[in-house]
UniProtKB/TrEMBL annotation:
One GO CC term, this protein: apical plasma membrane
GO biological process, one term: potassium ion import across plasma membrane
Protein name in UniProt: Sodium/potassium-transporting ATPase subunit beta
Subunit structure: The ATPase pump is composed of two subunits: alpha (catalytic) and beta (regulatory). Interacts with alpha subunit ATP12A; this interaction is required for the formation of a functionally active pump and targeting at the plasma membrane. Interacts (via N-terminus) with alpha subunit ATP4A (via the P-domain).
Amino acid sequence: MATLKEKRTCAQRCEDFGHFVWNSDNGTLMGRTPIKWVYISLYYVAFYIVMTGLFALSIYVLMYTLDPYEPDYQDRLHSPGVMAWPDTYNDLDLDIFYNMSDQHSWMKMSECLKHFLVRESPLRSVWDAATENCTQGHYFFQKKFEAPGHTKWACPFTQSMLGNCSGLEDPSFGYNGSEPCVIIKMNRIINFLPNNGTGMAPYVNCTVLDGHKNVGEMEYFPKNGTLDLSYFPYYGRKAQPTYINPLVAVKIHLVQEREAKIQCRVVAHNIAYQNFYDPYEGKVIFHIRASS
Ligand SMILES: *[C@@H]1O[C@H](CO)[C@@H](O)[C@H](O)[C@H]1NC(C)=O
Ligand SMILES: *[C@@H]1O[C@H](CO)[C@@H](O)[C@H](O)[C@H]1NC(C)=O
Ligand SMILES: *[C@@H]1O[C@H](CO)[C@@H](O)[C@H](O)[C@H]1NC(C)=O
Ligand SMILES: *[C@@H]1O[C@H](CO)[C@@H](O)[C@H](O)[C@H]1NC(C)=O
Ligand SMILES: *[C@@H]1O[C@H](CO)[C@@H](O)[C@H](O)[C@H]1NC(C)=O
Ligand SMILES: *[C@@H]1O[C@H](CO)[C@@H](O)[C@H](O)[C@H]1NC(C)=O
Ligand SMILES: *[C@@H]1O[C@H](CO)[C@@H](O)[C@H](O)[C@H]1NC(C)=O
């Protein structure tokens, strides 16, 4: 029986391929006449030029409408969130429990505050130039970019402003006794003006929700728990790379059973604090307990 499939030699295959590449009988190159190839090439060249043009145009339009100094979408954040340190968050609740006669236990709290302050700490050289234009009690509006590297100045916030809660005089932050410090931070929002530009500074007000008789006194640092107006508005990470969040520390004098549930709220009429869906909007609630 003859084989159905003819065995072809390698030379024959090469010849076939040669015919495919250039067929002299009907003058085609890879199955098409050269003029057709020219048309096809022109078509693709035009196609890619149009595609590249469209892509470049859309990128250009996007870049043109984007302000590099501000994120485009920040419509969700109208009111700032508030956080507290030492951040011993246990699920969603902030429990500051420590044993003041157990060094290992209270050191955990004071170390946490120490690390927090180091992280928040500043680039001093850049401040020195800015301080002359920082006026306490006044917003620090800056239309131009006058700081080095086309940026804006930021007012200084130093650890020593936290007074007896700065950790400078008492490195235990009060945790070796019953007068612990809690540090409150309000998150920054670009262009946010507390009290809507009326010139009243926001301040932290802590209230005891539970265990009134266990709290003797609450001291605020800086005085009155004020977040000075010169830290506002915040212009964004790129415009104000040296910005430091102002902080407020609260020294809580615990008495009797030394246990309480406390709410600290940043008070300003345009800071909401009753958002059911965001319990950290405008306030922070924590449990504090000093055992011995
Ligand atoms: C606190 O620490 C002391 C000393 O380590 C210990 O005797 C005491 O039982 C601890 N108190 C509590 C409530 O754990
Ligand atoms: C302070 O403000 C004045 C007037 O606006 C300006 O000329 C000066 O450069 C500012 N200084 C700094 C360090 O920003
Ligand atoms: C800081 O603490 C010291 C001693 O504990 C006290 O004498 C002083 O009045 C406190 N300072 C402030 C601003 O409360
Ligand atoms: C806590 O530590 C500070 C600073 O080291 C010290 O002055 C203070 O007496 C200590 N307090 C207690 C209750 O041990
Ligand atoms: C805030 O101030 C601006 C202009 O000063 C005003 O248009 C706006 O209604 C004010 N908003 C609130 C909530 O008071
Ligand atoms: C702090 O809040 C409490 C309870 O809401 C209120 O009674 C008190 O007057 C407030 N203090 C200040 C300084 O606003
Ligand atoms: C703190 O508040 C009191 C009373 O409201 C006020 O007299 C005092 O000037 C305030 N101090 C500061 C530094 O804001």
